[in-house]
């Protein structure tokens, strides 16, 4: 039996950096949203060991890949001996893009192997394992719309946004999350999101207040040359009709909401012609699902 899992991308509706801990990790507050855009992972029992392959040669079959590391964690968490597994990853979410692709793949691996091996670990246990792999993995396991605090370990689900068309656009470069955080200065002036207002706006469905608080302070950590290109892209997306336009995560991908799917498709096509990677997708209430749970409104 082959089990197929869907690892969904995420965007950050807003990010604020609250401070730096003694261990040099940053305390953050952010509102995250799952998208329909997905990587696909295929799992099949094997006699022994973990075999990992990927459609993207950049990832290859490295044992440092988050999928492989997640599989090792699940082996260690198993109460007894489990079979080996073959895992193949079909990448659709671009690398180093601020869309949480690696975290989503790790979350999907935890969920899929829990099912394939019949481990019956509860969600809280999976979240604990996920935090050992990356700060965004706990959210990717839960999905939907959520306020996330701390290092990413505190996930508070919010009322799900309705299905909304979203356009993603990425400049022809990637950004290192570690480097963006290293460069950020908390003393530098600039706009910051009001998480209280944003949460209330989500509860009320007050779209203009949501768009007004689509602020990502991590832009302060982007090198000037890259930041200039991101700002140009944001302005282009606004001119094409995007609302709530912001950089996602540590960048460089930019997103914008659209009232209709046709408008989103047209904007994505235009951005592709301008040389950007771009896709029209939509919001989703699920972070991870398996083959028989494809619908975005079903867990």
N-to-C series of helices and strands:
EEEHEHHHEEEHHHHEEHEE
For this structure, the CATH topology of the largest domain is Ribosomal Protein S5, domain 2
Structural class, by secondary structure, is alpha+beta
The level-1 CATH class of the largest domain: Alpha Beta
Overall average pLDDT: 92
Strand content: 25-35%
Count of beta strands: 11
- Number of self-contained structural domains: 2
| Large-scale geometry | globular
Q: How far from one another are the termini?
A: 21 Å
**Radius of gyration over C-alpha positions, nearest whole angstrom:** 19 Å
What is the annotated CATH architecture of the largest domain? Answer: 2-Layer Sandwich
* Weakly predicted, low-confidence segments: none
Helix content: 25-40%
- What is the count of helical runs? 9
Describe this structure as you would to a colleague.
- By secondary structure, the chain is α+β, with helices and mostly antiparallel strands.
- It has two domains: 2-158, Ribosomal Protein S5, domain 2 (2-Layer Sandwich), CATH 3.30.230.10; 165-282, GHMP kinase, C-terminal domain (Alpha-Beta Plaits, 2-Layer Sandwich).
- It is 32% helix and 29% strand.
- The protein has nine helices and eleven strands.
- Strands 1, 2, 3, 4, 5, 6 and 11 form a seven-stranded mixed sheet that branches.
- α1 (66-77) packs parallel to α2 (101-116).
- The protein is globular, with a radius of gyration of 19 Å.
- The model has no long low-confidence stretch (mean pLDDT 92).
